[in-house]
Design goal:
homotrimer, alpha+beta, Rieske Iron-sulfur Protein, Naphthalene 1,2-dioxygenase Alpha Subunit, Chain A, domain 1, 2 domains, four-stranded antiparallel sheet, 5 helices, globular
Chain lengths: 368, 368, 368
């Protein structure tokens, strides 16, 4: 299984990292330790002491550097051993731990597993609507026992709401939606409009719609590599324009833990200008979604992964439907990027090899 | 690990299948879904939606067809997609799930994992004594963590009663039994006569024998491929002929789940003409056997499998005893059938390659 | 993963074996059964009946021989089948189970997994200080989920006391120790002297030192293949000679269970001439050590093993420090012995291929 290495991935939510306790997390099959240095800056290192391979995450942060739990060697955020407590204290040249470029933005810690020279801050996707400086945000996390692309497929095709989440997110109207999918460069959109829908209480309450009333709902999904999605859902009175209703934007960040397990980070954000109502709504959304995500999506993704097993997705010969357009496009883009990277083409041009034609209409949808 | 494919295997007891809920079961390393269609006929399909590989067994039966749990595609008993709820509802040609020939007989659902053209009803072995139309029956199920042939070995050599089941099925007299084994074509018999035996209470009660009295017991085992056994046990007063005592026939059906795990289905049957006593006895037998089967046979079979590991049975060089004759014959027949099938010889002649001589006397024993 | 076969390994503590119950233990990836024969002599056999591979350890000891639990064959301490209860009772020539040379000494059962012709009693290392005939002894056991050489590394470098066991065995003075390491032939020594140390209560109490007083502590470690260590710790008033204080000798015996798991046997012994105080001290030492061993060493060793994974230790390129000298020497000796054995050089000369120069000073330390 190969991953795209030259890309920003979410390693953790920012509030998972404090100064006192290092955080252990396996990312792209690498055991990584995350911690904050004396200036509060997040650092990512291989979670393996250079001396005897002890997990640095089991040690402690001392004066902003990591102390190995077994023999007390200390490593700073650049991976350099800065202290050997034994004997004459000399530090051998090999006492160096690999580090990874790190950024903190949008309430998350982002890390770059590939060539550090390419770790350009400008390549980070935009998720301003969960910027904690300007928005109330609330977030959730789930470990998914499936390949990250299966999770992306699931988010890029919300038709599953009707069948998998009938009591919370779905309705009988969803399969009748108008669905448009498209891509531009490395970005994929799927735009779904559901008409004359009676919402389940969880959704109706969230959008302030009277129970049992007939509404229109739209759900726009935007995907960028390696697995970063924005979903905006809006609800309006039946037949009224999109602009007339309330919207709920959410971020969905998929980071492979291994080839068969995925860190699923998701967050809702609403402008602080909304006051307490906004603060309450983002919490309501995340807490309400945990149940269907955990009890319905997770087992389904795990079962799909089990059915596919070690077979390549395409070799398993899925019967493709129009609802799969966005997901297939995203898969093709990832395959193109990974192939380009493996063949040594410049990471900046990694997407050049694939077809840039849009499928269906090009969405004008933009968040923030 | 190769299995014999052109054969009828038990997939489930008939009463495990109702119309409302599909049943998931791995058979010969294939995830299979079983359900009843609108006419009540049992169907077996690969448990994997043609679209996105969701397990159909997690869906529901709607109007006699299976609805996939993730996106609502529906498949009938022939594996054809008969409903796509999305968009224009068209069904792509690949939307087809593999199905398996199925029969319902002797209180069981039988499936044929091989070439459907060869799935001849006439090739089903006879187990009339557990036909629910004419007999009271009761059945039990255990998952055995061992190769199915180890379970067959165990049933073909009941000398283990003395050592493994001393408190329930065994006695000190068993090792002194007269044992005859033979085969004719693809059928193997082992015929054991125990003389002057004092039975354990569980067996004595089942056969209506006073506790502590001295009896003769005979146990006849018949095996046919791929792992279908009939065991008839009879008890008589010491020195009296077989015809004078009560008999208890039972069916033992072994279906590989994987190369190392086995579905063990077993059933007792007595003619309805016996009235309530027969109904009570079949229940008594199954319920009483669950304890030694589960607590003594299962751990032993699992331990034997663990000791053999990935080694071929013959490469592990077992020291063969006369008590192994029937089991060895059954192994040789299975090896011949599997080799013939793999080499493309006509399934009907698959057994031709092996030695048809009988070992010891040929039993005249026939059930039903 | 290859093991050194021509060597004495500890299979069990002597008091684990009684006459009635066989003991199952996997040693060097072989399932072994240990039991005592009619004379009370310990025997070691493959834990696998020659007939149908049942685990002999699930059977029982009858008249000093092992009875197989499934079909009642009996095997004596030489592995010969001495009883077949079935039919005419003849025993086929293959009915022979592999056995291993066994010794009972120093409160332990030792077994020799290699060529029985080479199993020389004289090659057994000396651990007289835990001989139960002349010493009070107490022992502990832990299963370590790591390669046995990682455990040896850990015992050969007690600098980890300061960081891994700060509340029980360690102190801030340990990293400042004077450390000498050396080897002679196949024996490795590490000699550590800690000066002006304030001991944790567990150690201070054990050595009868007032809480908070300033002492010197020395810790001498001796290793011999395949993983047999003696550790002697002594405590004296600051600046006084070694002879003036109390000493605590302990044995540490590492036997691979598999390539990734280790049986860790350890024992303390003090001369019976010490009376009740000695009896109490060995118990105090073992019971007190179980906590840091189990809660601190075990998770650390397991984590190190996980970080190394299937990579060869040297390929993982550890940064070596002076504190690693003894451990590295022991690894090199084991590598030399295993290579010599694999290449068929005489086991007695197996250590010849490696460098016999001592590293640092040669310790004069000898126990018993």
């Amino acid at each position: 299984m190969s991953f795209l290495l030259n890309a920003w991935y979410v390693a953790a939510f920012a509030d998972e990292l404090n100064g006192a306790t290092p955080l252990a997390r396996t990312l792209l099959e690498r055991p990584i330790v995350l911690y904050r240095d004396a200036k509060g800056q997040a650092c990512a290192l291989d979670d393996r002491c250079a001396h005897r391979f002890a997990p640095l995450s089991s040690g402690r942060v001392v004066d902003g550097v990591l102390e190995s739990p077994s023999h007390g060697l200390r490593f700073d955020g650049s991976g350099r051993c800065v202290h050997n407590p034994h004997g004459d204290g000399r530090v051998p040249a090999q006492a160096q731990v690999r580090t990874y470029p790190v950024l903190e933005r949008f309430g998350a810690i982002w890390f770059w597993p590939g060539d550090p020279q390419c770790a350009d801050r400008a390549r980070l996707a935009g998720f301003d609507f969960v910027d904690p400086a300007t928005h109330f945000t609330h977030h959730g996390y789930l470990k998914t026992r499936a390949h990250y692309q299966l999770s992306a497929d699931n988010l890029l095709d919300l038709s599953h709401f009707q069948f998998l989440h009938p009591d919370t997110l779905g309705s009988e109207a969803i399969a009748r939606s108008d669905v448009q999918a498209g891509s531009l460069g490395e970005t994929v959109w799927v735009r779904r409009s559901v008409f004359k829908e009676t919402l389940q209480p969880f959704v109706a309450n969230g959008f302030g719609v009277p129970a049992g009333s007939c509404v229109d709902r739209w759900m726009d999904v935007k995907w960028t590599p390696p697995g970063l999605l924005t979903i905006v859902v809006g609800v309006t009175a039946e037949g009224t324009p999109r602009e007339s209703g309330r919207i709920a934007p959410s971020a969905h960040w998929l980071t492979p833990e291994t080839a068969r397990t995925t860190h699923y980070f998701f967050a809702f954000g609403l402008p602080t200008a909304m006051g307490d109502a906004g603060r309450e709504l983002v919490r309501y959304a995340v807490e309400g979604l945990m149940r269907p995500f955990e009890r319905e999506d997770l087992p389904m993704l795990e079962a799909q992964q089990a059915r596919i097993g070690d077979t390549d997705f395409w070799d398993a010969r899925p019967a493709l439907l129009p609802i799969d357009r966005g997901a297939i496009r995203a898969r093709r883009i990832m395959e193109g990027l990974i192939t380009a990277e493996r063949e040594g083409r410049a990471p900046g041009n990694a997407g050049e090899g694939h077809d840039r034609r849009t499928i269906g209409i090009r969405s004008a949808f933009e968040v923030s």
